[in-house]
Design a protein that fits this description.
This protein is an all-alpha fold. The chain contains three helices and no strands.
Length: about 90
Amino acid sequence: EMANQVQKAEKEKVVKVREDKKRMTYQEKQEWASIEGDIEALENRIATIEEEMQANGSDFGKLATLQKELDEKNEELLEKYDRYEYLSDFDG
């Protein structure tokens, strides 16, 4: 009998968590509203950096600077994709 009650409590906890997850916080709503624009801006910046790298193929100092920014932007972009996926699980 006791084991049964524990199981029931566990089940209710899982359902509760699932219900909570459906509602975005105010901050998440703000983030969701701008995330597609953020992703687009990062993708555009990355494309521009790659073009600049091709244009400056022999300027190693400039290439190093561009490469550093490229790495940073790619990392930011991956984080945004993760957030996008996370936020898109909510019901608006």
